[in-house]
Design goal:
This protein is mainly alpha-helical. The chain is 61% helix and 7% strand. It has a two-stranded antiparallel ribbon. It starts with a helix and ends with a helix.
Length: 167
C-alpha cells in the first residue's frame, strides 16, 4: 500500500509540473506554437535524423523538392531551419545577420578559446569589425584571390591526392 500511494503521489507531482510548464499558464512559446516552415513529420526523440541517411546532402536536396527551399527539421530535440536556395539564404543572412551573432558557442571551441579569436564565432565588437574589414579588402579581394590561385590549386591537388591515398 505504501508503494502504491508513493507512485500515485509521484504521478500527481509530475502532472502538476507539466501543467505549470505548459504554454498556456506561463505564456512561453514552444516550437509547436511558433509558425515554422513546412517539413517532414519528426519521430519522437530522434526527430528527422533517420531521413538524412548516409548522404545528408542528397536527402536535403530531395526534401527541398518536396517542402520547398526553406523547411523545418528536428535533429533530436533541436528544431533546425534549413535553407536550400542560395538567393534565399543570402536574403535571410543579410536581413538577420545580428541574430546569428548571439548563437550558442560549442564547448569544443571554448576549450582552446577559439570563440574569442575566430571571426566566425566572435560577438560584434570593434575587433570583429576590423577583422571583417581586413578580410574583405586584403584576404578575399579579387586581386588577392587571383594572385594566390596557383597556390590554392596546388594545395587542392595535394589534398585530393592525400584523400585518394588514404582511401
Amino acid at each position: 500500500m505504501d508503494y502504491l500511494s508513493l507512485l500515485l503521489l509521484a504521478s500527481l507531482v509530475w502532472i502538476s509540473i507539466q501543467i505549470l510548464i505548459s504554454k498556456r499558464l506561463l505564456g512561453i512559446k514552444t516550437p509547436r506554437s511558433l509558425k515554422l516552415p513546412p517539413g517532414p513529420n519528426p519521430f519522437p526523440i530522434i526527430g528527422n535524423i533517420l531521413e538524412l541517411g548516409k548522404q545528408p546532402h542528397q536527402a536535403l536536396a530531395k526534401l527541398s523538392q518536396t517542402y520547398g527551399p526553406i523547411m523545418t527539421l528536428k535533429l533530436g530535440n533541436i528544431t533546425t531551419i534549413v535553407i536550400s536556395s542560395p538567393q534565399l539564404a543570402k536574403q535571410v543572412l543579410h536581413k538577420n545577420d545580428l541574430i546569428f551573432f548571439y548563437r550558442t558557442v560549442p564547448d569544443t571551441l571554448k576549450a582552446l578559446d577559439h570563440h574569442i579569436h575566430s571571426m566566425g564565432w566572435m560577438q560584434p565588437s570593434p575587433l570583429w569589425r576590423t577583422l571583417r574589414k581586413v578580410c574583405a579588402t586584403k584576404v578575399f579581394s579579387l586581386q588577392q584571390l587571383d594572385s594566390t590561385q596557383i597556390i590554392r590549386q596546388k594545395k587542392l591537388k595535394e589534398l585530393a591526392d592525400f584523400v585518394k591515398e588514404k582511401k
